[in-house]
């Protein structure tokens, strides 16, 4: 690794060090507002208090797909532009995305138990999100299985782009297959069908979770860059000792 | 074109000769199917209900088992480098290799299906439905599995990692393959809809697989 390669990450580290505290503060404020609004939102006439799970479930589900989208863009950066930070971004995003996906599945099944009478149903939306979760885990396994980071980066980039095919399938699964999971109600043609008292807390929570992702992602990228520096320093030290 | 035909002929010949291992897939398929009655009990009614699912799972695992040979042997003896450097586009070469692999390892699985259907107490119509869905669906397994094989050869890692990467991609094929065969045997649902989706999955993977595999070979080999 030459100094030129490190030049860009250094600027990134300096910039992110200034941005991350502000982002973290904004995340905390918005999450507080969102959680307060969610807690004080009226009960649904059919679902009762369980509707409040939606304020956590929906942002998590959105982000589980959004993070894969970010990773796909980063993968294009790795394969097409060979941007030195692109694979750092992709690698740092994978565990965060896997966590969002897991939380979406978990909150969904907790909501499903009283509402649908079952924790799990092999419905198209649920199955495609489960596949997304498995693909996140596979990507993380791929990163861990290969020692050379740049080699692993290119392989993971190809796999991420292939996996991106799953995103439209998840999005439209509720329209294509008429199954248990309810169809889209917020982002649809002809406006949202949600009442304002539910829509506003949901949107606040969605923005808060997105900010949470950006904060965590930048912090994880910083950690990854530092981890790679430590690794190359250790390798330099080892080769000096050997010589 | 002649280069691609030669590549296909060469791959099939290597796969069928001693050490090629294409027919091991069929043997594995047979073994998996024979194992099932030991696991679920020799209840013929139950077996015939589970039959399509068992055959599909066996075919999926068998095609996965032979897939890591797709690029590995060529990488070891250096011919993969020649293929990469040749004037034939790498995407087409990958597609040709996958086609040869499907002819040598995928087609025997479908030929073996009627025999295995007998073991599982499937009647003629059911066996035919499963064989037809396998014929439509196994190209998708081979062509998406090729992505995993290409990644495995560039990473010098095969086996479990490849299975972890490829199996999630093959879930849709499994879903619609089994759904179509069930629909043909028992279901009130129509056979056409899941079967069309299965064909669509195969056609999409015919395009996506070679491009993704070629990209990972181009970027991964040094």
From TrEMBL, chain A:
<comment type="function">
    <text>Required for the export of heme to the periplasm for the biogenesis of c-type cytochromes.</text>
</comment>
<keyword id="KW-1133">Transmembrane helix</keyword>
<keyword id="KW-0812">Transmembrane</keyword>
<keyword id="KW-0201">Cytochrome c-type biogenesis</keyword>
<feature type="domain" description="Cytochrome c assembly protein">
    <location>
        <begin position="5"/>
        <end position="181"/>
    </location>
</feature>
<feature type="transmembrane region" description="Helical">
    <location>
        <begin position="93"/>
        <end position="112"/>
    </location>
</feature>
<feature type="transmembrane region" description="Helical">
    <location>
        <begin position="124"/>
        <end position="143"/>
    </location>
</feature>
<feature type="transmembrane region" description="Helical">
    <location>
        <begin position="12"/>
        <end position="36"/>
    </location>
</feature>
<comment type="similarity">
    <text>Belongs to the CcmC/CycZ/HelC family.</text>
</comment>
<protein>
    <recommendedName>
        <fullName>Heme exporter protein C</fullName>
    </recommendedName>
</protein>
<dbReference type="GO" id="GO:0005886">
    <property type="term" value="C:plasma membrane"/>
</dbReference>
<keyword id="KW-0997">Cell inner membrane</keyword>
<keyword id="KW-0472">Membrane</keyword>
<keyword id="KW-0813">Transport</keyword>
<feature type="transmembrane region" description="Helical">
    <location>
        <begin position="198"/>
        <end position="221"/>
    </location>
</feature>
<dbReference type="InterPro" id="IPR003557">
    <property type="entry name" value="Cyt_c_biogenesis_CcmC"/>
</dbReference>
<dbReference type="GO" id="GO:0015232">
    <property type="term" value="F:heme transmembrane transporter activity"/>
</dbReference>
<dbReference type="InterPro" id="IPR002541">
    <property type="entry name" value="Cyt_c_assembly"/>
</dbReference>
<dbReference type="Pfam" id="PF01578">
    <property type="entry name" value="Cytochrom_C_asm"/>
</dbReference>
<feature type="transmembrane region" description="Helical">
    <location>
        <begin position="61"/>
        <end position="81"/>
    </location>
</feature>
<dbReference type="GO" id="GO:0017004">
    <property type="term" value="P:cytochrome complex assembly"/>
</dbReference>
<dbReference type="InterPro" id="IPR045062">
    <property type="entry name" value="Cyt_c_biogenesis_CcsA/CcmC"/>
</dbReference>
UniProtKB/TrEMBL annotation, chain B:
<feature type="transmembrane region" description="Helical">
    <location>
        <begin position="21"/>
        <end position="41"/>
    </location>
</feature>
<keyword id="KW-0813">Transport</keyword>
<protein>
    <recommendedName>
        <fullName>Heme exporter protein B</fullName>
    </recommendedName>
</protein>
<dbReference type="GO" id="GO:0017004">
    <property type="term" value="P:cytochrome complex assembly"/>
</dbReference>
<keyword id="KW-0201">Cytochrome c-type biogenesis</keyword>
<keyword id="KW-1133">Transmembrane helix</keyword>
<feature type="transmembrane region" description="Helical">
    <location>
        <begin position="53"/>
        <end position="71"/>
    </location>
</feature>
<feature type="transmembrane region" description="Helical">
    <location>
        <begin position="191"/>
        <end position="217"/>
    </location>
</feature>
<keyword id="KW-0997">Cell inner membrane</keyword>
<feature type="transmembrane region" description="Helical">
    <location>
        <begin position="160"/>
        <end position="185"/>
    </location>
</feature>
<dbReference type="GO" id="GO:1903607">
    <property type="term" value="P:cytochrome c biosynthetic process"/>
</dbReference>
<dbReference type="Pfam" id="PF03379">
    <property type="entry name" value="CcmB"/>
</dbReference>
<keyword id="KW-1003">Cell membrane</keyword>
<dbReference type="InterPro" id="IPR026031">
    <property type="entry name" value="Cyt_c_CcmB_bac"/>
</dbReference>
<comment type="similarity">
    <text>Belongs to the CcmB/CycW/HelB family.</text>
</comment>
<comment type="function">
    <text>Required for the export of heme to the periplasm for the biogenesis of c-type cytochromes.</text>
</comment>
<dbReference type="GO" id="GO:0015232">
    <property type="term" value="F:heme transmembrane transporter activity"/>
</dbReference>
<keyword id="KW-0472">Membrane</keyword>
<dbReference type="InterPro" id="IPR003544">
    <property type="entry name" value="Cyt_c_biogenesis_CcmB"/>
</dbReference>
<feature type="transmembrane region" description="Helical">
    <location>
        <begin position="126"/>
        <end position="153"/>
    </location>
</feature>
<feature type="transmembrane region" description="Helical">
    <location>
        <begin position="92"/>
        <end position="120"/>
    </location>
</feature>
<keyword id="KW-0812">Transmembrane</keyword>
């Amino acid at each position: 690794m030459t100094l030129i390669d490190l030049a860009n990450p250094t600027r990134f580290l300096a910039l992110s060090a200034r941005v991350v505290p502000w982002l973290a503060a904004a995340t905390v404020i918005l999450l507080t507002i969102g959680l307060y609004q969610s807690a004080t939102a009226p009960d649904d006439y059919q679902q009762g208090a369980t509707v409040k799970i939606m304020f956590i479930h929906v942002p998590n589900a959105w982000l589980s797909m959004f993070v894969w989208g970010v990773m796909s863009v980063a993968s294009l950066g790795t394969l097409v532009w060979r941007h030195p930070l692109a694979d750092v971004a992709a690698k740092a995003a994978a565990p965060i995305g896997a966590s969002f996906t897991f939380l979406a599945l978990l909150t969904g099944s907790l909501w499903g138990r009283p509402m649908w009478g079952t924790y799990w149903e092999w419905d198209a939306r649920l199955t495609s999100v489960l596949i997304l979760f498995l693909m996140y885990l596979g990507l993380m396994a791929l990163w861990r299985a290969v020692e050379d980071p740049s080699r692993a980066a290119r392989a993971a980039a190809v796999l991420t782009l292939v996996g991106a095919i799953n995103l439209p399938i998840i999005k439209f699964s509720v329209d294509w297959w008429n199954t248990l999971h309810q169809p889209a109600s917020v982002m649809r043609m002809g406006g949202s069908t949600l009442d304002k008292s539910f829509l506003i807390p949901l949107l606040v929570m969605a923005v808060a979770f997105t900010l949470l992702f950006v904060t965590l992602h930048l912090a994880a990228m910083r950690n990854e860059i530092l981890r790679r520096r430590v690794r190359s320093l250790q390798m330099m030290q080892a080769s000096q000792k050997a010589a | 074109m002649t280069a691609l035909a030669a590549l296909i002929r060469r791959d099939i010949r290597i796969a069928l000769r001693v050490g090629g291992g294409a027919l091991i897939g069929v043997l594995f398929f047979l073994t998996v199917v024979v194992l099932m009655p030991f696991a679920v009990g020799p209840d013929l009614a139950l077996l015939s209900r589970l039959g399509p699912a068992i055959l599909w799972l066996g075919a999926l695992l068998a095609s996965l088992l032979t897939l890591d040979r797709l690029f590995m042997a060529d990488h070891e003896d250096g011919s993969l480098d020649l293929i990469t450097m040749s004037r034939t586009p790498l995407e087409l070469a990958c597609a040709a290799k996958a086609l040869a692999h499907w002819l040598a390892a995928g087609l025997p699985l479908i030929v073996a299906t009627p025999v295995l259907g007998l073991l599982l107490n499937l009647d003629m119509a059911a066996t035919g439905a499963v064989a037809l869905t396998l014929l439509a669906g196994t190209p998708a397994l081979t062509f998406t599995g090729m992505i995993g094989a290409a990644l495995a050869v560039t990473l010098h890692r095969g086996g479990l990692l490849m299975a972890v990467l490829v199996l999630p991609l093959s879930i849709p094929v499994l879903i619609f393959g089994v759904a179509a065969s069930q629909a043909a045997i028992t279901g009130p649902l129509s056979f056409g809809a899941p079967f069309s989706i299965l064909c669509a999955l195969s056609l999409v993977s015919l395009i996506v697989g070679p491009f993704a595999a070629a990209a990972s070979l181009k970027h991964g080999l040094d």
